[in-house]
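Narrative of activities, Objective 1.

The group set out to show that a structural description can be obtained from nothing but a protein's sequence at a throughput compatible with the screening campaign. Below is one input-output pair from the validation batch, recorded exactly as produced.
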Amino acid sequence: MTPHRIAVLAVDQVVGLDLGTPSQVFRTARDADDRHFYAVDTCTPGGRPVRSTAGFQVLPDHGLELMEAADTVIVPGVYGAATQRHDAIEPEVTKALRAAYDRGVRIMSICTGAFVLAAAGLLDGRRATTHWAHTDGFRRLYPAVDLDPDVLFVADGRVLTSAGVAAGIDLCLHVVRTDHGSQVANQAARRCVMPPWRDGGQAQYIERPVPQAHDTSTAGAREWARQRLHESVSLRDLAGQARMSVRTFTRRFRAESGLSPTQWLLRERTDHARLLLESTDLSVDQIARRSGFGTSAALRQQLQQRIGVAPSTYRQTFKGRAPY
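Output recorded for this entry:
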């Protein structure tokens, strides 16, 4: 097995945490024989040291030529001039990024790394995201980008962008899951001491705002429901678990999760069905029952609405998926 080659492109004022995220996540993705699915290396313009925002310099092993052999290029977050001016990114960097994209390479950014992709023209006309605190500056510099600051990450074809800090881990786990299925992604997440996906799972993009969880009073009810997806769970049952009235529970649930209880439960069941399709040989009828849909027709309808494919097609695509 030839590992999928990832080039992490660091430019001046790279965010230290973002720089380490791809290596940490992708190096934990392994097969049953403990062979790595990915090889991760770091490069900089000219192979020169660059400053990080964490008070240390990055001394890379490679220059931009690393990108010429890469299957995926990842740009970590940056601070300073790159988030303030169009021309702050070196021309050789933008040229190398455009060339990589033209060759069919997958391009990703973490946090404010989206500014670097935008400077290279790779986000024009695309949906993308970045750290919410940089929304105004990003829109001022790059009005041609369809910026959505309320999501954890966006996957628009071969160009993927994430929000700040932990959302970079979400994006990397999403890529592992897309490349190799849920079992490999789940194992990688456990090694990183992270959930395989946060509420809503790792769809092509997460379609809700990141919840502002000042109060987690419905968390217990959510976990209770997750253990009973195969059963009939009513709104009154959920409210009872939280010891609240239905009205109070519904209001607090939406404030914490960004969804109504009914929407959340439907999404959880769909995600569970997807996991079973990827990781088991159960029939579609059995999966429909175990995920709480009851019938294969109901499951088929939900998958079609959410991701646009039938259960059999989804299973064929993701179960035992070969490397990207």
